[in-house]
Design goal:
Two copies of one chain form a homodimer. The first copy, chain A, has about 475 residues and is of the alpha/beta class. The first copy, chain A, has three domains: about 180 residues, FAD/NAD(P)-binding domain; about 140 residues, FAD/NAD(P)-binding domain (3-Layer(bba) Sandwich); about 120 residues, 3-Layer(bba) Sandwich (FAD/NAD(P)-binding domain), CATH 3.50.50.60. Chain A is about 25% helix and about 25% strand. Chain A is built from 13 helices and 25 strands. Chains A and B meet through helix 9, strand 21, strand 22 and helix 11 of A and helix 9, strand 21, strand 22 and helix 11 of B. Chains A, B: Pfam families: Pyr_redox_2 (PF07992), Pyr_redox_dim (PF02852). Chains A, B: This is FAD-dependent oxidoreductase.
């Protein structure tokens, strides 16, 4: 009798695991339970759909449910919610469209993802307050901005619920709460659509994972683009008018708005795991070993519900990003198919687009964080041109690089600029994986030609300056 | 009495060394002898000056002679040719503008650079045959293309000699001999100026340092741009009409031309070194240790006249490129100033622009070369999108990656595409410096956001496919 691999959750980690397992072990029965109506979609692409750069919602779906079933032979069940896991009997309890049933498994992957957090204030459940954690929400936001229901779009039942607006106000002024990646991307695409955007951030700067040297470049650019920044301001509540959000209330006063997008972060969905006796780590996400195994036999966890190993910190961290989700899902798929495969660590690389700027980071960039791990962080910030001084398209790139004083080891970097920053951070990320010193980074043989770089790439210049500071 | 540091040659390596030495040890007398009229200029920028993208020749000069003298305190002597070095008496013999004299030194840097090679055929010394090894030649080519002497430009005596055309033909059809970086860049900028370009290459493909998988993408693009390729064709001579070049003659016939640019490579200028008893390596360039010291006491060599240590091959190689020249010059400057500093190795990273394409390489990509070093090379080629499938500006990137079968060690890669290839090769270069395996590259935490990458960057996809091939 063939074995059964059950996957809970049909996004990046879940569908990567299902696809790889079925491909490598065609005899395996692979069953995926997804409580919503979509699988394998690009959450990172939703802001660009709202912007209108991406025309159709369908474009964000990498592989359709039909393709998973018909072409990949995966038993994919949409609108199926897993209610409980019993690791003793190796069964999951599932609520389907018509009934609740049990499904046995030989291998189980928990890929339950993350949920958006909201600030602990009144009003976050009002109509026209969104968090952008699903295609349905993206759909509803764009529909609202486009001025009413788009009849050409096939709204599913979750979407219809979200999109049932109480009024038909034209959302001209929009409050964005939280200035992390989602908040900045939403502020950017909404202002690109001509909205009057007010961005609220509790701390003094946008992008908490970045130093002020980088964050202020982003802030200046946002202001140039016409976004009103409310930095160092706590949101105390959301006010309503006729049941819909009408103002963002802060300790400094009230700002009238027609819509609110909350981007204050995510938390791992772990209820199912906890109920099944699966251990969480200190971060609150599911703890796993290098093979993505939890403490329960044959139960794996991957994606935004689980911890990852941070290579520089050398400890588990909660870094819910797409690449690790895909990669770890794929590793579980190989393992389940009979080829034990490690998921691999992360260095915390991330990038986003804000207007004309690319903003990227990797590694440990926060001094306090680095010190808590026993490092003595030294940082330097440089600004240098992206191309030869005489070549068109040159733009300044600001690089803040951090290293450990004693060992000279590279710890991380933040970077911002309008010309090829996203792929420059990869050089730093690769150096972090390799455990390089700043002196070694300074000596890297990077590509130079006038249209693409200066002789000393900004990454090398940053390393040169930081190495000089370490010598002092 | 203060010490004297004498530098022979005022380009990248020489001026980097002089500047760093004087900065770190202000009491040092730093004397630079440059036989031409320019120092510290961007040879790599010359094609873009000829194209017209760079308007003035002056823009290619990073630091002027006056700045070196007045601001950096360097005793820079233009039009001074060093005729001989006597390591026994620590003196150099110099021919200046008016006389020949001796200059003693405590430290000497040979930074004599490289000379363009020409094919061993008749006619390479004809008027209107250029090699693009000096600003004077760049100036002369552009002057010719612009239709006569440009009175606004200050032509120096070498330039005047080069630019003394015998006729006033309008150069519409141009032969480019050699399809390396200089040849391709010149073919590209000349066709961008509207010239009818014929590119001649003895081997079957352009860019000998690349595999056919990458080269053919470049060839197809060149043809689209209207360049006529003569591949696998040996040039047998250059014919003349009224003393100026009039045709490129090949074994397959004669192609009439109005101008010829020869880009068949460079050879290190070593005559001075050889006469002084400085040893050359097997490559024919000056041999040095990690500190750029030659076999003669206190005689250093850096830049295009010297070998560099190739990290992947783990042997000296001749790789005359700008970054190593600058870096090694700077290291010599520090060393001479009292802080012994290694120059650092290279991995052979290079990039060029051909039309809309970025073409880049790093490491060992030639199978025969890899085998001669004891590796068992395995290569795979993939083509993948540069950005998310739904994001505008996405372009295909072709990556050919090579690894050693037994160790799984990454050996090198070639890459071509129209969207951010130059800085993607840096990831591979960094991995080569770190001695990573392909499996380690596959697990790198690289940056992802829809405007800049796919979830699996093309570099990761290439590593994934190659790792799969190594498993077979």
């Amino acid at each position: 009798m063939s074995e059964t691999f059950v996957v809970v959750g049909g996004d990046a980690a879940g569908m990567s695991a299902a696809s790889k397992a079925k491909r490598d072990a065609p005899a395996l029965d692979v069953v995926v339970f997804e409580k919503g109506g979509y699988v394998s979609y690009s959450a990172c692409g939703m802001p660009y759909y709202i912007e209108g750069t991406v025309e159709d919602l369908d474009e964000l779906v990498a592989v359709t449910p039909e393709e998973f079933v018909d072409e990949r032979g995966i038993d994919l069940r949409l609108y199926h919610e897993v209610l409980a896991v019993d690791p003793e009997t190796r069964t999951v309890t599932v609520r389907g469209e018509d009934d609740t049933f049990e499904q046995s498994y030989d291998h189980l992957l928990l890929a339950t993802g993350a949920a958006a957090t909201t600030p602990p204030v009144d009003g976050t459940d009002l109509s026209c307050v969104f968090t952008l954690r699903s295609l349905d929400e993206a759909h509803a936001i764009r529909e609202r901005l486009d001025g009413g229901p788009d009849e050409t779009l096939d709204l599913d039942r979750d979407g219809q619920a979200v999109a049932s607006f109480l009024t038909d106000r034209d959302p001209r002024r929009i409050g964005v709460v939280g200035a992390g990646y989602v908040g900045l991307e939403m502020a950017d695409v909404l202002r690109a659509r001509g909205c009057d955007v007010h961005l609220f951030q509790r701390s003094a700067h946008v992008l908490s994972g970045y130093d002020a040297d980088v964050a202020t470049v982003v802030e200046d650019h946002l202001r140039e683009l016409g976004v009103t920044l409310h930095l160092g301001v706590s949101v105390t509540g959301l006010a309503a008018d006729a049941g819909e959000v009408s103002a963002v209330e802060t300790e400094e006063g009230s700002v009238p708005v027609d819509m609110v997008v909350v981007g204050t972060g995510v938390r791992p969905r772990t209820d199912l795991a906890v109920d099944a006796g699966v251990e969480l780590g200190e971060t609150g996400a599911i703890a796993t070993d290098a093979y993505r195994r939890t403490n329960r036999p044959d139960v794996y966890a991957a994606g935004d519900c689980a911890e990852v190993h941070h290579v520089v910190a050398d400890e588990p961290r909660y870094v819910p990003l797409a690449l690790a989700a895909n990669r770890h899902g794929r590793a579980v798929g190989r393992t389940v198919a009979g080829d034990p495969t490690v998921g691999g660590g992360v260095v915390g690389t991330a990038v986003t687009k804000v207007g004309d700027l690319e903003v990227a980071r990797t590694g440990l960039t926060d001094a306090e964080d680095a010190r808590s791990l026993g490092f003595d962080p030294v940082a330097r910030t440089i600004t240098a041109g992206s191309r030869a001084s005489y070549y068109p398209g040159r733009a300044p790139i600001t690089v803040r690089m951090v290293a450990d004083r004693d060992s000279g080891k590279l710890l991380g970097a933040g970077m911002v600029g309008a010309d090829v920053v996203a792929k420059r951070i990869d050089t730093v990320a690769t150096a972090l994986h390799a455990g390089m010193t700043v002196a070694e980074v300074e000596r890297l043989d990077l590509a130079y030609a006038p249209p693409f770089s200066t002789v000393w790439d900004p990454v090398l210049t940053a390393a040169k300056v930081l190495a000089g500071a370490l010598d002092e």
